[in-house]
Amino acid sequence: MLYLDSCIEGAQKLIEDETVDLVIADPPYNLKFGGTTQTKNKKPRFQIFPNDNLPFPDYRRFCLAWLKQAYRILKPGSHVYIFIDWRTYPDMARWLKISGFTIKNCIVWDKKNMGMGWQYRYQHEFIIMAVKGKKNVRRIRTRSQTDVWQISRIPGNQTIHPTEKPIDMMKRIIENSSEEGEYVVDFFAGSGVVPDAAEILNRRWDAFEVDPGWYAVSTERLKEKRT
Ligand SMILES: C[S@@+](CC[C@H](N)C(=O)[O-])C[C@H]1O[C@@H](n2cnc3c(N)ncnc32)[C@H](O)[C@@H]1O
Predict the structure, then answer these.
(1) Pairing outcome for strands 124-132 and 101-110
(2) How far apart are CA 26 and CA 185, in angstroms?
(3) DNA methylase N-4/N-6 domain: which residues (predicted)?
(4) Cβ contact 1:11 at 8 Å
(5) Domain boundaries, the chain
(6) Which atom number of ligand 1 is nearest to the Cα of residue 190?
(7) Does domain 2-226 have CATH number 2.170.150.40?
(8) How many CB atoms lie within 10 A of CB 89?
(9) Nearest protein CA to atom 18 of ligand 1, as residue
């Protein structure tokens, strides 16, 4: 189910300890990103979403709070995937370790097309893959995949959310790190791409989105898929 709530308070209220098979978190990177500025008026297509423009100590507190919830709800040995870019990677890696996670890998998402940027245009992001605990660590489904994923990004003028991720990316994560019928939790729903992928792949899922506008967008996306 999709909840209009913060993942921090929402998970605290609704999800029992060690019941979740996979957590996916595509958090605000704290970069004040409003989408492409290649528009007629050169203004970003969207407004900055919540928690994407915080003073650093507040952003740190925010991340440690949702990481604490992610750790609490995950079953031991299960996986968390966290999207982040090179600017926030060092902090996020430190906070993951402080929260008890063991980082297993850092996937490079090669978006296949260049984006914005000046000193070399951006074409990649990172997806940190980490586990809860050190014993009985779950293995991903296959040994034939590498940690570089070439998946085309959605062109900036076609997204329905400023940081919308391709559904194939979420499907790959879900298929690699969970089985049919297992329970997937998405902490930052945005356009609803994780719930969409989870439905297609027959996973049980819950997702949180704190912004009423984006909650409405993801609700609509899921409704369209069901009809
Ligand atoms: C990076 S975007 C996620 C984009 C999404 N993965 C997609 O592909 O559409 C982060 C989203 O988290 C939401 N958000 C920010 N703080 C939140 C919180 N505390 N709990 C839940 N959602 C939050 C923002 O409104 C934003 O829509």
Answers:
(1) antiparallel
(2) 11
(3) 20-212
(4) no
(5) 2-226
(6) 27
(7) no
(8) 16
(9) 6
